[in-house]
TrEMBL record:
Keywords: Signal. It comes from the Bacteria. This is Uncharacterized protein DUF3558. Residues 21-54 are annotated as: Disordered. Residues 1-24 form the signal peptide.
Length: 195
């Protein structure tokens, strides 16, 4: 049941993202076939950076947001997650040109092993952000978003997602992954400057 819920959560989150629009219901089944879980190995973290109490909206400075062309105010939320156990704090920031949304989640209820152990579905590619192990996650069934998952501490991770937010034509998935990696790099710069 937990694996089924995680798979459903991945599909819902990658479909709905962390937008300020309507919320998807966990009871609503996905309309596309479920993807297969993937197992991945990552190197150890260079050090631990606990993110308890870190405001995700503080992790992109106003200057960094300008560089990412995010011109709308950050929208913070804390609520039960459709993907991770328990409540998760996240921040969504949108831009108009192009129509993109970057969301940052400070996940203190699950670590990177949530993704590396095959509990979550998606195409995963190992990466390194500011010398920390990371994963770039693409949905195998949806193409309007891309996540970067950063291993920052035992049982904790940062989830940075880029989504096309109504762009016409939609932003290509490869570009969304590049945007997510760029945003994740800036997020880690800010987090490291705070510790």
């Amino acid at each position: 049941m937990g694996v089924r819920r995680a798979l459903l959560g991945v599909l819902i989150v990658l479909l709905a993202g962390c937008s300020t629009g309507g919320q998807a219901s966990p009871a609503d089944p996905p309309t596309t076939p479920q993807a297969s879980p993937t197992t991945v190995s990552l190197p150890p973290r260079p050090r631990d950076i606990p993110i308890d109490g870190v405001d995700p909206c503080s992790l992109l400075t106003p200057e960094q947001r300008v560089g990412l062309r995010l011109d709308r105010p950050p929208q913070p939320r804390r609520e039960p997650s459709l993907l991770y156990p328990g409540e998760v704090s996240w921040c969504s920031i949108r831009g108009n040109e192009p129509a993109i949304s970057i969301s940052i989640s400070t996940v203190t209820t699950a670590g990177i092993e949530f993704w590396t152990s095959g509990q979550a579905a998606g195409e995963l590619r190992p990466a390194e952000i500011a010398e920390f192990p990371a994963l770039v996650a693409r949905s195998q069934v949806l193409d309007d978003g891309c996540k970067v998952l950063l291993d920052v501490a035992p049982g904790q991770l940062l989830d940075v997602q880029a989504r096309s937010a109504g762009a016409d034509p939609p932003i290509p998935e490869d570009q969304l992954c590049r945007d997510a990696e760029r945003a994740a790099d800036l997020v880690m710069d800010t987090l490291l400057s705070q510790h």
